[in-house]
Design brief:
The chain has 171 residues and is an alpha/beta fold. Bound molecules: 5-nitro-6-ribityl-amino-2,4(1H,3H)-pyrimidinedione.
Length: 171
């Protein structure tokens, strides 16, 4: 059997990206933002087609992502943050709400909203996920964002077609 396979190209040229970055643990999240920018640049995105929105913490990512996605100016929204279990007694609330809200923003708008939040037990694990050891989560989610905008463009048969069909309230 050879079923038809649908998958997105890894080319960012012509697409617009929003990065929403939490200020918490800025020495780590700034590395994640750098990783995301590195990926977008290397996949051909134009600097002018990328905008960064800063928010106080990861808890604030979902609503900001929703507003940015609803604005209709971007093809994908990349949310970035770091939540470390050992550093907060309300880890579950912050990380859980961030994950749930980011998914909701995507589902409500039809625009890919990526979850680039590093959630770890320890500071060391978080450091390792920001480019020091086991990859850079910002780079990875930016790659996923590019793949998805290409996949959805193909599925829609044209830019924004899906949005018009499925989400008439999103301009
Ligand atoms: N926000 C984070 O992004 N990471 C954290 O580790 C964190 N801790 O540890 O509390 C955190 N808290 C702030 C939270 O995201 C909100 O900004 C705050 O609760 C105001 O709504």
């Amino acid at each position: 059997m050879q079923p038809k396979v649908h998958q997105g190209l890894l080319t960012a040229a012509g697409f617009r990206f929003a990065i929403i970055a939490s200020r918490w643990n800025d020495f780590l999240t700034s590395k994640l933002v750098e990783g995301a920018l590195d990926a977008l640049e290397r996949l051909g995105a134009d600097e002018k087609s990328i905008e960064i929105f800063k928010v106080p913490g990861s808890f604030e990512l979902p609503l900001t992502a929703l507003k940015v996605a609803q604005g209709g100016r971007f093809d994908a929204v990349i949310c970035i943050g770091t939540v470390i279990r050992g550093e907060t007694p309300h880890f579950e609330y912050v990380a859980g709400e961030a994950a749930k809200g980011v998914a909701q923003a995507s589902m409500q708008t039809g625009i890919p909203v990526l979850f680039g939040v590093v959630t770890t037990d320890t500071l060391e694990q978080a450091i390792n996920r920001t480019g020091v050891k086991s990859g850079n989560k910002g780079f990875e989610v930016a790659m996923s964002a590019v793949e998805l905008v290409n996949l959805y463009k193909t599925m829609d048969g044209g830019e924004n077609l899906g949005k018009e069909k499925v989400f008439p309230h999103v301009v």
